[in-house]
Amino acid sequence: MNRPLKALAGALIAFGIVGFAAAQDAGPAAGSPPVTAVAKPHKNFLAISHELLEKMNFSDAQKAQLTDLWKKTTADVKALRQEAKTATDKAALKEKRKALQKTFRESLKTILTPAQQVQLKGLMQEHRLKQLQKGAAGTAPAHP
């Protein structure tokens, strides 16, 4: 290869490297958290529970009990959301939400057979694992 071609090839490589480096993001400012993918809003516990419960089989009596539990819990969640619009004590809201979830879980346990409880626990573990894997891939995990 003659000298002018070597110089031209060297210049093209140098411009390519400089152009590539200039196109790179400087990254987060010092002290700020790293930028990650935009998180999708997480599903609430009712939506997650509904998804998991749809994968299971229930007797007619259980279906009726689940429907009643669902209606009551949905109404409670709506009331809590209304309260959240004007509430100033976020810690108290968080405690109410936790209490609502606990009541839902305890009521659900009274409806499910021991075998169904084990099945649901397995489905919940699978769901959490999927969410952790999504989180490792750069997206924020859903809150179970």
Q: What is the first-to-last residue Cα distance?
A: 64 Å
Q: Identify the quaternary structure here.
A: single chain
Report the helical percentage. over 70%
Could you give the count of β-strands? 0
Number of helices: 5
Instruction: List the helices and strands in order.
Output: HHHHH
Mean pLDDT level: 75
| Largest β-sheet summary | none
Radius of gyration: 26 Å
What structural class results from the helix and strand content? mainly alpha
Unreliable residue stretches? 18-22, 37-41
Which percent range describes the beta-strand content? under 5%
Shape: flat
General description of the model:
The structure is a single chain. The chain is mainly α and 144 residues long. It has a domain at 45-61 and 69-136. The chain is built from five helices and no strands. The chain has helices spanning 3-23, 45-53, 60-86, 90-111, 114-136. Helix 3 (60-86) packs antiparallel against helix 4 (90-111). Mean pLDDT is 75; it is low at 18-22 and 37-41.
List the helices and strands and how they pair.
Elements: H1 3-23, H2 45-53, H3 60-86, H4 90-111, H5 114-136
In short:
This protein is an all-alpha fold and 144 residues long.
Properties at a glance:
single chain; 144 residues; mainly alpha; 5 helices; flat
